Amino acid sequence: MQKKTISNLSKLAVPFRSKGRFFKEIETSLRNDFQRDRDRIIHSTAFRRLKHKTQVFVNTSGDHFRTRITHSLEVSQIARTLSKFFNLNEDLSETLSLAHDLGHTPFGHAGEESLNNCMTNYGGFDHNIQTLRIITLLENRYYNFKGLNLSFETLDGLIKHNGPINNLKKFNKILGNNFFKKKIKFTLNSSLEAQFASISDDIAYNSHDLEDGLKSNLFKLKDLKNIPILDKIIIKHIKKTNKYSIDLIIRQIIREIINEMVSDVILTTRNNIKINKIKNLNDIYKTKMQIVTFSDKMKIFDTRIKKFLKQKMYFHKKVKFRTNYGKKVITKLFISIKRNPKKYIDIKKYNSSNLERIICDYIAGMTDRYAINLYNQIK
Question: Helices (DSSP H) in the chain: which residue ranges?
Answer without folding.
Answer: 2-8, 33-42, 45-49, 68-85, 90-99, 108-118, 127-133, 152-159, 169-174, 192-215, 230-238, 246-275, 281-286, 296-309, 317-339, 341-344, 355-364, 368-378
